[in-house]
Each structure stands twice: as C-alpha cells, then as structure tokens.
Design brief:
By secondary structure, the chain is of the alpha/beta class. The chain contains 22 helices and 8 strands. β1 and β2 form a beta hairpin. α1 crosses α2 and α10 packs across α11. The structure holds 2-acetamido-2-deoxy-beta-D-glucopyranose (4 copies). Pfam families: Abhydro_lipase (PF04083).
Amino acid sequence: MKVPILVVFTVLAIQCSECSAPWSDVLDKFSNKTSHLLDFVRTKGRSVKQFYVDSVQGKLTTYFAKNDNPSTEYDKESFKKQLGIKRKFKDYMAQAEAAQNQVFDSMAPKKVEYDCEDDDPAIHMTTPQLIALHGYHAESHTVVTEDGYILTIHRIPFAKKASSKVSPQKTALLHHGLLGSSADWIIPGPQKGLPYILSEVGYDVWLANVRGNTYSRAHVSRNTDSFAFWNFTFHEVSQFDLPAVIDYIMEIKNGQAKINYIGHSMGTTALFAMLSTKTEYNHILRAGFALAPVAFMTNLKSPIRLLAKFSNDIEYLMKLLGANEFLPQNSVLRWLSKHACEINHYEEAICENSLFVLCGYDENQFNRSLLPIILGHVPAGASTRTLVHYAQEIKNKGRFQMFDYGPSGNLKQYGTTNPPEYPVHEITLPIALFSSDNDWLASDIDVTNLYIQLANPIEHYVVPFKEFNHIDFLWAIDAPTLVYDKLLQLLEKGVGGANNSYGGIDANVIRV
Ligand SMILES: *[C@@H]1O[C@H](CO)[C@@H](O)[C@H](O)[C@H]1NC(C)=O
Ligand SMILES: *[C@@H]1O[C@H](CO)[C@@H](O)[C@H](O)[C@H]1NC(C)=O
Ligand SMILES: *[C@@H]1O[C@H](CO)[C@@H](O)[C@H](O)[C@H]1NC(C)=O
Ligand SMILES: *[C@@H]1O[C@H](CO)[C@@H](O)[C@H](O)[C@H]1NC(C)=O
C-alpha cells in the first residue's frame, strides 16, 4: 500500500510546489485524494496492490501475443510481464485457498448487469424461433442418449425457396464448441450463417446441442442440479451424444444419407474422441470438417492455460469454478477476463463473457451489431469437468488423453495409473482441418501435429487472415469468404460426379 500513496503524494507535491499552499492543506488534499483513489480502486473491484501493479507496469498489451523464447528486448520485457502475471495468479490461488474462496469475490471485478437498450426480440429467441424469423423452416428433434441425457437438436430441412418440401439427401451435422449451442451458427443471419449457406446449396442441415447446454438440459432420471448430471466432459459427449445424434439422423434419413460432420472447437474434440474409440463411425460419416480443431494442446494463448497447473487438484479446481456447471460469471473467470481485457482493451460486455475471454476473437472481424444477440445466447452452458479435462490436456503437453482421475481413480476406471491417450491413428474418416494463425486455443503447431497423424487427411487450410481467432470461425464479418467458400468447395468435392449416389462415396473420392 505504501507505493501508491507515495505516487499520489509525489504527484501532489509536484502539483503544489507552485501553489505554495499551507502544509496542512496539502495533507488534507493528500488524504482526500488517497481515499478517493482507494474508493475508485475498490469500486472497480480491484485490490490496491493490483492497482499499483497495473498502473505502474502499464497495460500488459503484449501478454498474449508473445512466445516463451524471448529474443528481442521487447519480447524479454513482455516475457517478464507474463511471468509476473503467472506469479500473481499463483499468489491469488494460494490466497483463495487459504481464505476459502473469499478472496476471489473481493478481488474480482463486480458482476455487471447489462441492460440491453436494444429491444431486438431476437435476443431472447430460441434457435428454431430465430430460424423461423430468418424465413426458414425449422424443426426440433429430441434424442435420448444411452446414458439418459435428453438432447434437443435442431434442423433446417430444406432451402428457403425450395420448390418441394423434401429434404435433400446431402446432409450436414453442425456441432458447436465449448459454452455454445445450435444458436451459435444461426446468429450471423441468413447471409452469413453457415447453416443457411449450406441449406441454400442443397443440404439437409442439422444442428447438435451438447448435454448440459440451453437446449439439452434434461435427463431421464438425474436432476439438473445434481453432480451426477454435470459429471461429464467432452469424452461422454463423444461416447454418447454424438453417436445418439448421428444414429438418429441416419434413422430419419432411412440409412440413405452419409453425414458430413462440421465441428467447431469442442465440436471437433468430441469428433476426434469418438472416431478414435468408436471406430465404426469412421464408416458411418462421410467426412469431417474441423473448424478451429482442438485435440493436442501445447501452445495456447487462451487464459484457460492459467488453470492448467491446478488441474491435478480436481477437487480444488471444481471448488473454484463451480462443482457442477461451469458458472460463467464466477469470480475466477472474472479475474481471468480482467487480464484478457486490460491487455486487449475489450469493451466490458465482452470482458464479462466467458466465451470471448477463454476463446478469443478479432475486433476487426467482429460485427458489433451482433453483440446483443450473442450475449443473449452464449454462454449456453458447460460442465466444469469439461474445463478441467481441457486443463489436464494443456498440463500434459501433447497428450490427447481421457479424463485423469488420479492414479487410484485411473486404475479403477482404466486399469492403468495414467489415463489412456485417444488412439488418433484409428481415425480413418477423411478429415479437413481449418485453422488460423491467431487462434488462442488451436495453434498452428498443434493443428499440424494432428493433421500429420490423420490417416485420410483432406486438407489443412489456414485462414488467409492473420488476426483470425477462435470465435471468428462463427461470426467473423468475412467468414463466408475466408472460411465457408473453402468449406463448400471441399464438401462438394466428389459429390457431383455420376458415381455419387451419396450413400456410398469412397473415402478416396474426396481426397485432394
Ligand atoms: C475532496 O475531493 C472532493 C472530490 O474531488 C472535493 O469535492 C472535496 O472538496 C475535497 N475535499 C477537500 C477537503 O479537499
Ligand atoms: C462420475 O463419472 C465417473 C465416470 O463415468 C464415475 O466413475 C463416477 O461414479 C461418477 N460419479 C457420480 C457421482 O456420478
Ligand atoms: C452485421 O450484422 C447485422 C445484423 O445481422 C447485419 O445486418 C449486417 O449486414 C452485418 N454487417 C456486416 C458488415 O456483416
Ligand atoms: C464411375 O465408375 C465406373 C466404374 O468404377 C468408372 O468406369 C467410371 O469412369 C466412373 N465415372 C465417373 C464419371 O467417375
């Protein structure tokens, strides 16, 4: 506390060296300013120490931008700042542990309520309502998984002006990412939303919803407030949700269709986990298209990596993040977001939203008028366990592995003290990867590592826009030209030929 007071005092002293005020006045002003400063700092929800570190060190603008091998002076400086933040985070966690979590609540910024002045009714609409609003036919389907989760998935069965109301044979299943839902794809509207683009070029479009999100928050026997309900990660999604949804669509299509799977973020993690363990789905699907693919996690910029070192203490992490649902507005997240935001100068509404904070986006590619509707739909819900699972992947650099229950838990669960890796070499489905240089979660190194392990790679496409980030695959202003054009081109490869009955495409046909 000494230092900021000294700073204020020095400022005052300099200001008053010319005003020759009596000493007592200076003292009054000094204490007045100090208390104002303290009030100011407290209303911002920060500790004084924090304020000092921030104001003296300045905004850590390069925190997320630099690597761990500093070469230039500039890099070294930024590296030092990163270490500083890491240290602070460690102290912070230690304090929180000692104080039973209280510290987080006092230190993190206060939760801000947003009154959306915008009266746009779309903010509160469900995915099917939005689809209808955009002039398309929408369907909702209920799928029950083998382990009893009740999922609601959505569908755009045919194009807007389709002459016959019959769904095309060509089928695409879109799977959202972490904290997302089917609405993610719909939000950009008919011109820019991927489902609409696919519908217009003749696809029967299905939109999955993962267990626990807005549309799939139900179970045949488990209460949604119970730990038993939230006791899942992307692993269970890969073992139960994806197979159930795929089987259901196959049934509706009378086994006549081959599904093109298009995943974003966690939607790709679950795909890779499924294809490597339930290998029959390599033959059931037609091809996989992975946007911002996440499997190996060695080289992240997302603040989620700050949690990694605590990932072996699951109990503790669950205590901090919320035991069941990952509560998007909890204080840890606000703490993380404060850093992401100070560093990146994001506006507050974005800073408070877990999706933006954990995943990253590019400001220039972001259409600000979508913000109210985005904030109305995301985060859509995720289990804390899923975040812990990701944190474990980050900690075990380069191992794409099943959930780590600790040595004795693993022995019980898997029969080995270490969790098994997903056997990526078992994936034989033709797969195209779409990545970008600035992706906070899916770095070039990790995506390339995945690509070279695929048995039937279609292509690794790097978005030709340097700042393109994780979320931009969904909402970027130029996503249609930067990403979807290429996606369509790859999707259509081998589809138009005379030998394509769309039911028995040889995997090699669409190989580039
Ligand atoms: C203390 O600061 C407030 C706000 O800046 C001002 O209105 C008030 O007059 C000050 N009091 C003294 C004693 O300087
Ligand atoms: C949580 O899931 C694991 C793995 O499926 C299982 O072993 C454990 O019994 C579950 N715990 C509860 C309380 O449901
Ligand atoms: C931004 O979103 C609005 C609302 O969907 C849309 O009308 C507008 O065309 C979009 N702007 C750009 C540049 O994509
Ligand atoms: C279709 O398949 C047959 C037999 O495999 C082959 O002879 C023919 O050239 C193929 N046609 C096209 C258009 O690929």
